[in-house]
From TrEMBL:
InterPro entries, alphabetized: AH/BAR_dom_sf, Amphiphysin, Amphiphysin_1, BAR_dom
Protein name, entry field: Amphiphysin
Gene Ontology molecular-function annotations: phospholipid binding
Stretches assigned to coiled coil: none
Gene Ontology CC entries for this record: plasma membrane; synaptic vesicle
Organism: Scomber scombrus (Atlantic mackerel)
Localization terms from the record: Cytoplasm; Endomembrane system
Record-level GO BP terms: synaptic vesicle endocytosis
Pfam families assigned to the protein according to its UniProt record, in alphabetical order: BAR
Amino acid sequence: MQQASINLTQSLHEVYEPDWHGKDDVMVIGKDCDALWEDFHNKLVDSTLLNLDEYLLQFPDLKTRVAKRSRKLIDYDSARHHMETLQTSGMKNDRKMMKADDELKKAQRVFDELDVGLQDELPSLWESRVGFYISTYKSVTSLEAKFHREISLVCRQLYEVMTKLAEQHSDKMFTIQGAP
């Protein structure tokens, strides 16, 4: 939309003849319109996209930790299975049993630490999305409403200049054949 507005303004500047009413006004209105679009774009980027980028930055770390938790769950299951195998085999090798028990406890501790951390963090992250959505949409709609109020004033000024130009050249009005 911004580029379309810029193109329209440039076209208007190119075709507007110097002796027509409001030549300077049209130039100022065009610059005001372009400035409003640029300001809207910059504010939208600053208030919305930067917040979105910041919000999204937390996901790669969480994804890495969830993947690590999955790997540690496999390690824990493997250590548990190894311990069960040793217990059911009937061999009485205390050293192997103690080593397997230590590995099982270590694997369980590492897994539990990751699991508890994620169980604390993931629900709060899930709930935070609502606040993020609200603030983002409120910001966007507020910026849009302000922009449309301001651009409508500029469009009104252009309409008034065009009305006076039509009065100046009332004998040269363009009519479309077959139109009522």
